[in-house]
Amino acid sequence: MKNMGDGRRVARVEREIQATIAQFLIRGFKTPLPGLVTVASVKMPADLRAAKVYVSVLGSDEQKSETIDLLQERAFEIQKYIGAELKMRYCPKLTFFPDHTTEEVLKVERILHELEEERKAKGESSNESDEE
In this structure, which CATH number among 3.40.1190.20, 3.30.300.20, 3.40.47.10, 3.40.50.2000 belongs to the domain 6-99? Predict the structure, then answer.
C-alpha cells in the first residue's frame, strides 16, 4: 500500500470521527441536548489516540456549558460507538471543548455591518454638504 503521509491520514480520520460523533448525537444520544449542537471540528495528534472535539452550541451561555459538561460525562458512550463504527487500532479518548469560531464570525460581521452603515451615513452627509 502506498504511503499517503501522516497529515492526510490524520485529516481523514478527524473528518470520520467528526461525522461519527455527529451521527451518534442524532441517533444514539438518549438525553436531549440543550440548544442547537454542531460538531464544529476534531483535532487529533499523529498517534490518533486522543481527540479534541470542538462543539458549537447555539443558545445561552448556561446551555453551552451544560452541553459541554453533558457530552464530557457521556464521552465513554461516544467512544464505544466510535469503536464499533470505525475499524481503528485504538479508539481515541475524547475531550469536548466549546467552539467560539461561530461567535467570532458573527461579531466580525456585525462590526463590518456597523462600519458600512457609518460609511453610508458619512457619504450621505458629505453629499448633502456638496449640494449646499
Answer: 3.30.300.20
